[in-house]
Amino acid sequence: MQIILLSGGSGTRLWPLSNDARSKQFLRILDNKEATGRESMVQRVMRQLRSSGIEADITVATSDSQKDSVIAQLGDSVDIVTEPSRRDTFPAICLACEYLSKQRNCKPDEIVVVMPCDPYTETEYFHVIKRMADGISENAADLIVMGIEPTYPSAKYGYVVPENGNCVDGIIPVHNFTEKPDVQTAGHLISEGALWNGGVFAFSLGYLTEIAAKYVDAPTFDEIRNRYKEFPKISFDYEVAEKEKNAGMVRYHGKWKDLGTWNTLTDELPTTEFGNVITDGSGENTHVFNELGIPLLCLGTKDLVIAASPDGIIVSEKSKSENVKTYAQQLKNRPMYEERRWGTYKVIDSITFPDGFCALTKQLTLNPGCSISYQRHEYRDEVWTFIDGEGEIIIDDQRRSIQRGETVTIPKGCKHALKAYTSLTFIEVQSGSNLVEEDIERFPLDW
Amino acid sequence: MQIILLSGGSGTRLWPLSNDARSKQFLRILDNKEATGRESMVQRVMRQLRSSGIEADITVATSDSQKDSVIAQLGDSVDIVTEPSRRDTFPAICLACEYLSKQRNCKPDEIVVVMPCDPYTETEYFHVIKRMADGISENAADLIVMGIEPTYPSAKYGYVVPENGNCVDGIIPVHNFTEKPDVQTAGHLISEGALWNGGVFAFSLGYLTEIAAKYVDAPTFDEIRNRYKEFPKISFDYEVAEKEKNAGMVRYHGKWKDLGTWNTLTDELPTTEFGNVITDGSGENTHVFNELGIPLLCLGTKDLVIAASPDGIIVSEKSKSENVKTYAQQLKNRPMYEERRWGTYKVIDSITFPDGFCALTKQLTLNPGCSISYQRHEYRDEVWTFIDGEGEIIIDDQRRSIQRGETVTIPKGCKHALKAYTSLTFIEVQSGSNLVEEDIERFPLDW
Predict the structure, then answer these.
(1) Which of A227, A226, A203, A204 is nearest to A215 (CA)?
(2) C-alpha of B402 from chain center
(3) Nearest to B381 among A298, A301, A405 (CB)
(4) Quick one: residue B169, left, alpha or beta (phi over 0 = left, psi -120 to 50 = alpha)?
(5) What's this model's pTM, rounded to 2 decimal places?
(6) pLDDT (mean) for B100-110
(7) Do residues A186 and A154 lie in contact, with contact meaning Cβ atoms separated by under 8 Å?
(8) pLDDT in tens, B266-285
């Protein structure tokens, strides 16, 4: 059995804690009762999967910008397939299935479950997934979807309308799918027994690769990935589910929450204060997140969400916090904080002069044993001042050890790489006429 | 005529915009209708003095920590006398008067007006000051105080109780002074015609130097300053005003506000948003100040004061904002932003490792023509990366020009100085076992 975990989404609804590189599913703010410390949504779903007894390989389908976050949070225990460009769920699932088929040599009768990484759910959710997979191996249907008991007539979700009658072993035949109806239609659908479409699908690998081959038919995974743009930009629901005549559904009764907004998220948090926060005790119903290195003081705050990160600060009345999306898109900027495969960085200062020259100052930490690739920039100088740890640096093919107290200047055009022996922290000052992540040329290197 | 402007106070009540180096009177947030741009309280009172027609030299009595702010905001047009240590208003006024007498050779019959730098007032206030000074030169009294029409029985102010009867040329004889009574007594005093003590006093220079000599009697100003601790730690009101039998008062009728709390300050501000602030337009009665380089988004905020600076962030219900003082004292830290005589700096990052080693990163700007003294540190290395402008640097007696794109490392024990030709901006990374402002040894230098 193969599980494809969809990790996508942009980082606007929980701005400024989330950004393009750190979508909501990577925020380490949920309580992990089984361990000490906090976990993110993606870590929670992985932990739940592992402890559910489901035996499956896990492949995360994600974007290039989120790949490092996935590695940093899930380690080597998962495979990762990245889309060359953002399209929609149908192409993303095709790509992951082709990876399983052509790269991992999975058989056409291998059972695949596709699931989102962000709903906040309970153990029963994973029992339902197991039932769905079993349904496919028993040939109960060609495609099985998870149906969520609706709690209100939402226009945000898709609906699954069951066929009347014959439910066998928990598999209910599907009459049809209805994507995001208006509220009135939603109410009508619910009264007729429709459930929310939970975005969890089970099918056999061959089922999907056959559909994928209608758009891109090629012998190797690399070729399919190179021709990714030939897949239509469409959701799995429209392209596959709605067209399927032999679809089934398994009901899920337990908790199912999209923690994608400040309001829904704060309902599930273990405490009301995260980071360096001081309150006077007279506040009510206020959640405060502070990721900055300076204190945040709250006096008498009521019904607020307050969040501060290197990307920005929000102070929002809870009922208005959904509107952050509108504004966060305007505020879109380079991510000021990122969790990378090699460690973390945060932007601590950014300044642009009237003539267009820019300077960007970062604090970076490389995890022990990790390294930054051998690279060269065309438009910027960098200055690294090492303030903690020990490591090794390569500058224009010259290798030497490096430690706290040393400063290295890296002019434009100079090749450089860095490896940490111990946790290695340094301040980087970038300066130049064009400071973009894309100004990078990489070279092969064996440490 | 001599004016002594008292500029003291700590920076806790408007935290985080104010700090030890930048008291409330230096915040550039008031509207200056006579010019473009914003002005601070101390700039406002100076502008009002200049345009009132009062012909006087001005001496600012302040602390060492505020001296650079005074120079940065008022320039060379004022004299500055700094207390060697913080005591109270009586010693501070004595020191300033001794400066006028012994350093500036003012005569004993020179008229002196002492005034605070922070009340928010109107033109009439300065007419009253003129009347007070004239009253001294006419020998109407030995000490003349400004009386403010009380608006409520406050326990925060001192009261001036007038003698019944004979007011000559606006000078009312004073019966007695009562410092900070309880609210009930305050109400009683007001019903009997008492006024608030505005902290503005007029007297002849000889009057005060005679009182000062009772504590410190020395031939030179330097000697008096060196013996500053021999002055009692007491207010001018207790030590001088309350003991004076021949005191007079002039009434002031106009606006007189202490803008020392968030509530009183925000009432007088020209706009509700300062800095990079975005709002959704649904907020009410909210003032937002953002001095950080990142955006601050407000959605549906109501009755709040929000302020963010390199020192910290406050989100406070307006009615609770007076409590900031209690917390700001706990949060006391090194100032993260300062306006110095040579320019400005802000701390952009601060990190302490488990072994006690620290790193502090600053963005600094030297104003054109300004310089940083020739200095040496015992416990810290510094790395300067120049990102804008041109200047000259001296490293261990070696002088050379410096410009954008250059990096200079300054190990512990290395002497260094810097001068700006044009506005010169650089990133400084300090690192070492002990990062305190006191780790500095200065050397003489002629540019």
Answers:
(1) A227
(2) 34
(3) A405
(4) left
(5) 0.81
(6) 97
(7) yes
(8) 888 888 999 889 999 998 99
